[in-house]
Design brief:
The chain is of the alpha/beta class. The protein contains 15 helices and 16 strands. The radius of gyration is 22 Å and the shape is globular.
């Protein structure tokens, strides 16, 4: 029933947003491109609950008993694995998609709390390297901005096979965001749309991935951990193959992961939810005997709170990665920018046109005037505050379950509120011992 017209009934199938999109497509003749992530309701960590300690379990006292949060990444082959103070890292987001000030702010915020940030398509900026204590360098199919010197300047390398918002698809950076500097770093023309490849140019299968990982180790003197990032689809087999190819760390990005720009049909209709992917990746590592014994698992895609962090770790992740939430912490979708958003036909809480380059918060833009609005020092501090809150919340939940380290959380600490979540996470439906599909 419409609030504006209480006697009118809106179709659930052809709601106003759907009708508007059909009309837009009919008028423009091109698919819709946008940023952000999936907006449809999907099974998520919200569908799980923790079983706090009671008579059968003993909780830890928050003011006196420690709950560890540190994590080691890359212990399998790298001579210099990463030691992070918290298990929440910043996902790869490119300079080009984001302003230089935003990239600097991400580095500042992550460094303030002892975590890492990640480059993205298009190469490494000096602002990012200079303000990131620990920086992961993405090696992508496009090779935009890639050079061996930057590989050696990084602290770890992430080979990107896919992204949760668009597994099987390549990157996209529209011409209005191709400034002189972005064009120079990517050695491509200014103001022309850039489409990144959906697969690496010199790979035809897992054997080529093994060769590429070995090349990267040789270039970096076997010092840097090598991550392999996949979009969540056939997660069990993708994890198995990436590990057998030599990966130190597996990054699984679920379909709730964000993007700077891609077709909306990709965002909403390709991939599997993060909740399902984390258990599949964990099972693959357990099958190989490497779960928490040599290969680490990072999970991303829709992580928003300390509860999400704790649940992902309980299901098998060693760490999580955030992208959309990090941009919101920097200042994206701020309510005090309501008038600016209104000029763009949107409102705080709804802004998704990260591809357009008109971001009034100065984050997803290359417009110099807009980009100057973001103070990287203040934004970095906001991000650090947010990361601290995520960590404190996760510690609170772990202590309530009687765990002295976040990594001591386990699936037995969880139950599910829905059948779908129980089946995907492979934990019992709340109040029962029933796991759909298993028993």
């Amino acid at each position: 029933m419409s609030h504006d017209h209480p006697t009118l009934r809106e179709s659930s199938l052809f709601d106003r947003a759907t009708i508007h999109e059909i009309q837009r497509a009919a008028s423009e003749g091109i698919y819709k491109i946008r940023g952000f992530g999936a907006k449809r309701a999907l099974p998520h960590f919200d569908d799980l609950i923790f079983l706090g300690a009671s008579v059968s379990r003993y909780p830890l006292e928050g003011y006196r008993e420690r709950c560890g949060t540190d994590v080691l990444l890359g212990t399998r082959h790298a001579s210099k694995p990463l030691k992070l103070d918290i298990p929440v890292t910043i996902a790869g987001m490119s300079f080009g998609s984001l302003s230089a000030n935003a990239k600097e702010a991400l580095g500042r915020g992550a460094s303030e709390v002892g975590s890492s940030t990640t480059t993205g398509d298009g190469g490494m900026t000096d602002e990012e390297r200079g303000h990131s204590k620990t920086l992961v360098y993405q090696y992508l199919p496009s090779r935009y901005g890639m050079n061996p010197d930057d590989l050696r300047r990084a602290d770890a390398i992430e080979v990107v096979i896919g992204q949760g918002a668009k597994p099987g698809g390549g990157g996209m950076l529209l011409g209005q965001k191709i400034s002189d500097r972005v064009a120079e770093m990517r050695t491509l023309p200014k103001n022309i749309d850039q489409r990144s490849a959906c697969r690496h140019p010199d790979w035809t299968g897992p054997d080529d991935l093994e060769i590429k990982i070995r090349e990267l180790r040789e270039i970096t003197d076997w010092e840097k951990p090598i991550y392999v990032k996949v979009g969540a689809t056939r997660t069990y087999y993708d994890t198995m193959l990436a590990v057998k190819a030599g990966a130190d760390v597996i990054v699984v990005d679920g379909m709730q992961g964000g993007t700077g720009a891609t077709q909306e049909c990709f965002i909403e209709h390709v991939g599997i939810p993060t909740l399902a992917a984390v258990r599949l990746a964990t099972e693959a590592l357990q099958e190989l005997g490497l779960h928490r014994k040599g290969v680490q698992l990072i999970v991303s895609g829709g992580i928003r709170s300390g509860a999400d962090v704790a649940k992902a770790i309980a299901l098998g992740a060693d760490a999580v990665s955030i992208g959309t939430a990090a941009l919101i912490a920097l200042g994206d979708n701020r309510p005090d920018l309501a008038e600016e958003y209104a000029k763009l036909g949107t409102a705080p809480g709804f802004y998704e046109d990260w591809q357009a380059g008109n971001d009034p918060a100065g984050i997803t833009t290359q417009n110099p005037e807009l980009a100057r609005r973001l103070d990287p020092v203040k934004a970095g501090h906001r991000l650090a505050n947010y990361l601290r809150v995520l960590t404190l919340e996760a510690q609170t939940l772990a202590r309530a379950c009687g765990k002295s380290h976040l990594h001591n959380l386990e699936p037995e600490d969880l139950q599910a509120l829905t059948l779908e979540a129980a089946a995907m996470a492979k934990v019992p439906l709340a109040g029962t011992d029933w796991i759909p599909g298993l028993r």
